[in-house]
């Protein structure tokens, strides 16, 4: 029995499914998850000493790779002054100033500890600001596990085939409307019927929780126009895309500024941190300035603020995003060629350093087309890559992430493993 197998057996006795988040259990791809002992750069090492090239990146935060020396130094220095205050500190001001400077839509920002908290709080604020009840989300977009958002959700909900979640009362989701992503006519129809009651539209500007799916030309601009015309708050969930696709996130990349933005992952530099922010008049409604209540014991945690501040400072260096784009394009193109050479039909979707290999002919533009992917074939590919030392997200409906630590050696190893893996599953 391996050390990972031993740990998984012990974990299953004391932790539901043996994991602290469902997709980690490998249920969708088979087998048992290796338990990670340490990580550095673009590689992780499990408890049995096996090293892997990592494209999970802690599900997105590790844009600089694991254990970046400058981020570790920042956390160590902050920890010498205390690990949590429950009071204001300079570090949260410094990180907030960086967020406001870089993210086009954010004039004021409030820190929380998770992406779920960020989206939940943003929607509560939108309802409080507008005095309306209903929200509109998109099929396959995942915005955390708040009750009202577990409707037609992506991520682990899609991976595990859960149609929502027991424990969520019907009344909780009665005011959540769902339409297909990349379908402007469906949005127009929803506004025609519910426009005066719509407090917010929340969207992943680039989807990562049905796999990587880009907005079609003009789609985000259409959302911006119809929400502005109807007095509805447009919320971009950039927990995944924020600071990854550009310093200003997807809204900078596509030139469309929402009313509010949710951030996480890279914002915390590898530590738990998230935020929501937006127009000053909307944020003025948050307590203590306004009547919409939201609070958190660990919000603005000094260690997370120090890590996030340093992570963003590192991203300000010239040429960073050009380098990330070149590496990611090389990987995506190589994966497509390897599949074609092996006679395996795939569609490789990529936006910046987010990418997904779908096992279907494509195009993949929404949740319906994403679900046409052959998930059994993906599971076989995943296991073939894992035994060759490449760790992909263990789910078809999740984005893979390229980091600045992925160099030519890691890309070459990945593409060699992919060529062999595609040939294996083709046979």
Summarize the helices and strands and which ones pair or pack.
Elements lengths: L2 H12 L21 E5 L2 E4 L4 E4 L14 H11 L10 H13 L5 E5 L2 H16 L3 E5 L17 H4 L10 H4 L2 E4 L4 H11 L3 E6 L15 H12 L2 E6 L10 H6 L5 E4 L10 E5 L1 H4 L18 H14 L4 H23 L4 E5 L2 E5 L8 H4 L4 H13 L2 E2 L8 E2 L6 H19 L1
Parallel strand pairs: 3-13, 5-6, 5-7, 7-8, 8-9
Antiparallel strand pairs: 1-2, 2-3, 4-10, 9-10, 11-12, 12-14
Helix pairs in contact: 2-11, 3-11, 7-8, 12-15, 14-15
What does this structure look like?
It is built from 15 helices and 14 strands. The chain is of the alpha/beta class. Helix 8 links the parallel strand 7 (198-203) and strand 8. It is globular and about 60 Å long. It starts with a helix and ends with a helix. Residues 153-163 have low confidence and may be disordered.
Radius of gyration: 21 Å
The helix content is: 25-40%
Please trace the helix and strand order, writing H or E for each element: HEEEHHEHEHHEHEHEHEEHHHEEHHEEH
- Major beta-sheet overview: 7 strands, mixed
Number of helices: 15
Judging from the principal axes of the Cα atoms, what is the shape? globular
Strands of the biggest beta sheet: in what spatial order?
4-10-9-8-7-5-6
Structure class: alpha/beta
Uncertain runs with pLDDT below 50, 5 residues or more? Answer: 153-163
Strand content bin: 5-15%
Distance between termini?
30 Å
Overall average pLDDT: 94
Total number of strands:
14
